[in-house]
User: What shape does this take?
Amino acid sequence: MRKYRRLLPSTSRLVAFVAVAKTGSITAAAEALGLTQAAVSRQLRELEDFLEQNLANRTPKGIVLTSAGQRLIADLPTALDTICDAVEAAIHEGKTPSVTVFCDHSLTTSWLNRRVMEFEGEHPGINVQVLSSNRPPEAFSGQFDVAVLHGRPETQGQESWLIATDRVFPVCAPSILQRLPAQPSLRDLMDFPLLEFAPTRRDWLHWPDFLKAHGIDTPPKPKTTFDSYAIAIEAARLGQGILLGWEIVVAPHLANGALTAIGPWDMDAPGGLRVHFSPRGLSDPARSFAHWLRHPDPFQSLTLPGV
Assistant: This one.
């Protein structure tokens, strides 16, 4: 940064020099820039003082650049154009409607990315930025407009809309299914490692609650836990154990045969899949995206009651 301050003169002086060099005249440069001749002469002189080099000589035929001036004009217009492009892009970026969405890693890869692509196809004027993490959304407070989460009915200070219902059921790799009885019981599943995701996350259904809901009050503790559901899925795919599969997330793995559902047991996912937002309201881009997640039919109204 110190090099910039030492070597970069003011842009107004550089622009004045480019105008003089291109027009070959102080008068013409002043007309092109909408300045007085005195102002252009002063900026040229100040630039020469800064560089400690004479850049141009006045002759009866006009301005003639010195070798230093010729060297400077060789690269300067391109450099100024690059700076202008960067500034223009920054201005455009700041004015382009955008919405930042928080989502869990596993849900991002299995579901959200596809929905974002569909939304941007229907709303090309809105940019969607995805903030994906295994950490809870509270760790990123103020950094996103809406959050797409499983359930979380206990979340305080937020409003939410149901996007889709979801089911939870045991899943495993075909290699484990072959080792189970033809009609296994839930207790048969407990002979295998139970893979668990972030047992402290209250927005996810965990093995103890699932087994208790099906009549097993004292289930063993899961033998392997992960802080990433995506990694837990990969462990299940590799045959390391049995995982509680959230249908929306594991659907691609069920479709390609990498995972298979076990038995007749399932539960409704608590709260379903929801889009959460602050009761303070939504920006127009965030409102459009949240409503589209709720009603992806492009012909439905974007009027949002209560927002």
